[in-house]
Design brief:
Layout (H helix, E strand, L loop, with lengths): L19 E2 L1 H4 L21 E7 L8 E7 L2 E7 L12 H4 L1 H5 L9 E3 L8 E3 L2 H19 L4 E5 L5 H11 L7 H18 L14 E5 L9 H12 L3 E5 L12 E3 L6 H14 L5 H7 E2 L1 H8 L4 H8 L3 H13 L4 E3 L11 H15 L32 H5 L11 H10 L7 E5 L10 H9 L3 E6 L11 E4 L10 E5 L8 E6 L13 H11 L11 H9 L6 H6 L3 E5 L12 E2 L3 H5 L19 E6 L13 H6 L5 E4 H7 L6 E6 L9 E6 L6 E5 L41 E6 L1
């Protein structure tokens, strides 16, 4: 949001003295960090290194050090002491400086004196802003009850306010895009199979085979994760990628399966049935740890190679080749669970099938398999106490989506707000999330917001959702605040086993009138009558309270260059009572299929293509669209289109194109075509998060196409309530 100010103070930041130490204390040149690399000839400015940084340009949160000169952050690097990302950070991590000093960043509390969606902003004081937020939220609770508040949080700074609204205010209507539009269906499918969510705990560095179904290694660029993957390939692991697109990982694959979208579960069922029929599975592991294997075998017996090949539109021989390769290298196989898993609304069974495949291979607790690192323990939690009034989440009240966690599926919040049934939802708090670009069917999100009595947004940048706020509050960025505790183990389990602990510490002080989450929520709590419930007074207190049970503190971490290391434990092996629920009776009792089951999706209508979306190595969805460095590298999202289809349409690479979907919705912007044989004829693909509509984003506004604008068909996974994101069909139009 660009405001005219007399002086550009966004470059006048002061370093945090307590966290700034001479570079020599952190690393030597031998460790890959040279002293004062940006000192200009004739300059006597001293470069210092601020320790304790934890990146949040994506959710992977690499550990950082920052170079400070003349009270400005001039460079970010990986912390040489890190056993996670080490000195490596990606393009997004490097570009955090341009987020910090983005002139469009939110600077002051603002009040919308226009209409939602077409705001007119008036600068107000923090007191005025917080008073109005407190008054409006209190009025909504008094009139309707606490459950009238909906909250959409995202990111580490949103945890403290999320717990306040859930626990103390008492609303269950909290919905995280990172769950309901991303990983939630994956987590609960694996939880119902092995009793825990999978995370990305696959030991790819030590695998003989890496099996990725829709996994875009190299395009997500999560540094330590990418290191595991590349180390595995360097060590000779065979790579199998199942994807309708010739992704970066497909380009390195020994076997690329060009599958028909939506048929992934059928593919895995066909592999497993072949392995059962031909004795290619790990019989001892299944006997020792399998539950319901007989029922499972019976449930998948119809998935012959011929049936699977026809359904998935891939050769029989290729399915057999994959099955033979997996079986021959069991148990040292990485069956990757994926991350972004909300595709078609039949995704719970895909997750179950992958977990069962790992079980058939015995790929748990062994080198190359599913291995959950044994991280450090003994940390505290800062909790808001429970309030007087608590309600069941909408889905639990209705007895649906029984496999979903605390919180409420997003579409249920919207439907309830729009219809007023079973009760009104009239107030909304949005913290670091952009629901305009995370939830299919944007028109419903707009309807939900416009019927609200009050909308409060807290963010770093003026994303599209902020245009619908009544009060807009500027938050300090991850480079300007304390908050997140990161702990874990080294990325390569073949190394000496170690554990690490780090805490996010500011590289520089927040400028203008930006505030941290503890300040904002505590001040709001005072106005909502919960002052006595406040658990900590400052964000530093919060971090120290979490570290204290482990015998650590901010001061101790600073003395250890931002990272505490301690001996680790061997992560391999499984407990004697470890179980793989091939057939889950509890699912049957809840009305779901006990074994992984293929649910077909609608075929692509004639004249259309299925719209696929995913990650880009240079952007974290919409969060980085205004970053000038990343925009220079990727200013818009190219539309991948098959060369045969493009030839018939007279489209060449570089031509401007737009899209219209099967429901008549046309993209409001354009991008350029990328013509390639590396995508199926029935699909188009583009990176998610482009096409911002907020004119306050001077770099990102209108850059590329917004795939979410075209996602008007809502299909919800029946077990979890997660939203399918790949259910729309589009026509490509030469612009």
């Amino acid at each position: 949001m660009a405001f005219k100010v007399t002086r550009r103070k966004f470059l006048q930041t002061a370093s945090i003295a307590a966290a700034s130490v001479p570079l020599s204390k952190v690393a030597t040149a031998k460790a890959g960090v040279a002293k004062s690399p940006f000192t200009a000839p004739g300059s006597f400015a001293e470069t210092k290194t601020a320790v304790g940084g934890i990146c949040e340009m994506c959710f992977w949160r690499c550990q950082l050090v920052g170079k400070i000169r003349d009270n400005k952050l001039v460079k970010l690097e990986g912390n040489p002491k890190s056993i996670d990302n080490g000195t490596s950070i990606c393009a997004r991590g490097n570009s955090g400086i341009k987020l910090l000093y983005d002139p469009d960043r939110l600077k002051y509390p603002m009040k919308n004196v226009g209409e939602r969606g077409k705001p007119k902003w008036k600068r107000i004081s923090w007191k005025e802003a917080l008073d109005e937020c407190g008054d409006k939220l209190n009025a909504a609770v008094k009139k309707y009850s606490a459950r009238t508040i909906a909250m959409f949080p995202h990111g580490s700074s949103a945890k403290y306010p999320m717990h306040y609204f859930e626990h103390t205010v008492g609303t269950p209507n909290v919905s995280e895009a990172s769950f309901f539009q991303c990983r939630g269906v994956r987590d609960y499918s694996w939880l119902s199979t092995i009793g825990t969510g999978p995370g990305e705990n696959v030991d790819m560095a030590n695998a003989k085979v890496i099996f990725g179904l829709g996994c875009h290694f190299g395009e997500n660029v999560h540094v330590s994760h990418a290191k595991r993957y590349l180390k595995g390939l360097e060590n000779g692991a065979k790579l199998v990628i199942v994807d309708p697109r010739f992704s970066a990982s497909a380009a390195k694959a020994d076997i690329w399966v060009k599958i028909k979208p939506g048929t992934d579960t059928a593919f895995v069922l066909g592999i497993m049935n072949y392995m059962v029929a031909n004795g290619k599975y790990n019989k001892k592991f299944v006997e020792d740890h399998g539950v319901g294997f007989a029922e499972f075998k019976d449930a998948i017996k119809d998935w012959s190679l011929a049936k699977t090949a026809k359904e998935c539109d891939v050769p029989e021989a290729q399915i057999k080749e994959v099955a033979e390769l997996l079986g021959a290298n069991a148990p040292n196989v990485s069956v990757h669970p994926g991350r972004f898993s909300s595709w078609h609304g039949n995704d719970f069974h895909r997750g179950r099938s992958l977990a069962c495949l790992a079980g058939m291979l015995g790929a748990f607790g062994v080198p190359g398999g599913f291995v959950k690192g044994k991280g450090p323990k003994g940390f505290g939690k800062v909790k808001w106490p429970a309030g007087h009034e608590h309600h069941k989440a909408l889905h639990r009240e209705a007895g649906i989506f029984l496999q979903s966690p605390a919180g409420t599926p997003t579409d249920l919040i919207r439907d309830c707000a729009i219809s007023g049934k079973p009760y009104p939802i009239k107030a909304c708090v949005i913290w670091g999330q952009n629901p305009m670009q995370t939830i299919p069917k944007q028109e419903n999100t707009i309807k939900m917001l416009k019927q609200m009595d009050f909308v409060m947004c807290v963010d770093v940048m003026p994303t599209d959702i902020t245009m619908y706020a009544d009060i807009l509050l500027p938050e300090s960025s991850y480079l300007e605040r304390f908050d997140y505790i990161k702990k874990g183990t080294q990325w390569d389990f073949s190394d000496k086993h170690q554990q690490f602990v780090s805490a996010r510490m500011p590289m520089v002080r927040a400028d203008f009138e930006r505030r941290d989450q503890v300040y904002i929520v505590n001040e709001l709590a005072k106005r909502m009558g919960h002052e006595k419930a406040i658990p900590v007074q400052t964000v530093e207190d919060m971090v120290d309270a979490m570290l204290k049970p482990a015998g650590l503190s901010i001061k101790k971490l600073i003395a250890e260059d931002g990272i505490h290391l301690q001996p680790g434990k061997d992560p391999y092996g499984v407990k004697e009572d470890f179980e793989v629920q091939f057939f889950n009776e509890e699912l049957v009792e809840e009305g779901y299929a006990g074994a992984p089951t293929y649910v077909a999706v609608p075929d692509v209508p004639k004249g259309y293509m299925r719209l696929l979306s995913g990650r880009s190595p240079l952007h974290t969805f919409n969060r980085t669209q205004n970053n000038v460095w990343l925009n220079a590298g990727m200013p818009e999202n190219p539309v991948w289109v098959n060369d045969k289809i493009a030839s018939k349409m007279g489209i060449k690479s570089g031509d401007r194109v737009t899209m219209v979907n099967s429901e008549g919705i046309k993209s409001s912007s354009t991008s350029h075509a990328l013509v390639t044989p590396g995508i199926r004829e029935d699909c188009v693909f583009m990176a998610h998060g482009f096409g911002s509509k907020n004119p306050a984003m001077s770099v990102g506004k209108g850059a590329g196409m917004d795939d979410q604008e075209l996602c008007s068909i809502l299909v919800v996974d029946p077990e979890t309530g997660c939203s399918g994101m790949r259910n729309n069909f589009v026509k490509l139009i030469k612009a």
